[in-house]
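Final report, closing paragraph on structural work. Over the funding period we assembled a curated collection of sequence-structure pairs, and we close with a single example.
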Amino acid sequence: MRTRLLASGPIIGAALAALLSLPSLRADSKKSAEDQHVELIRGLTAEWATVKAYLPRSKKPLDFDSSGAWDKDKWQEIGRELGPTGKIGDLIQITHVSIEKDAIVLELNHGTKGSGHWYDHVQAGIGGATQPINSGQTSTVDTGIAVAGTNIAVRFSKGIGDVTTADVKKMLKPVLDFDKQTVTENYVDTLPPEIKKAVQDKKAIEGMDRDQVLLALGRPVRKSRETKDGQEIEDWIYGEPPGRITFVTFTAGKVIHVKETYAGLGGSIAGSTAQK
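Its predicted structure, as stored:
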């Protein structure tokens, strides 16, 4: 009996040590998962890609398997309802990233917020009246940027595991090419230093044209136009209440003013600051 108790002592001790270590193991695992989520969100949000395959608009995320496969026929069928995001070869931007247990959901060009096409109507301002804009005016310049948004869900059959930003970009390459050596980068390199820096910093500054603002901030949530003293003024509005709102004002195709402000619920404005 004495021999059996002595032999079991080290075993019991090891078992107790293992049980005591479980909380720290769980904490380390949780921290690792949080770090991974931060890396994915930071690494993917605001990234630009070239559309490489037919990409329909879809309010429900388009399923894309992590193996690189997708149902092309189903995507075509979905596109017959809302149309495509743009042409193959257009640029599109990731505007939001959501991490789920077995999926990474990407919102592209602000998804399909609202109804109809983005150019059908614009909001005159926060809480203001909606006014139509002539679609001919918005389509005269081909910016090479997808004109609408959609959503893609990269699905993982066994959970996302330890996937990284680089892994996700590689998976999506048949549909979205994130190669940095693109026409866009070459174009950015030709810009004046202050505008090039603003594009890289993802902000708008005075003197930019519409294409440069699109590259820096993506497509606005709303647009408004008015004529003042015989001059047409156009505002591009980024963000929605509650939260930070950015107004980019154009005249004759150039940015003349950038204003950032905070809007509370109901559109109440507080603490506006001008950005130089």
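The first helix runs from residue 2 to 44. Helices lie at 2-44, 72-82, 135-138, 165-171, 183-189, 193-200, 210-217. We thank the funder for supporting this effort.
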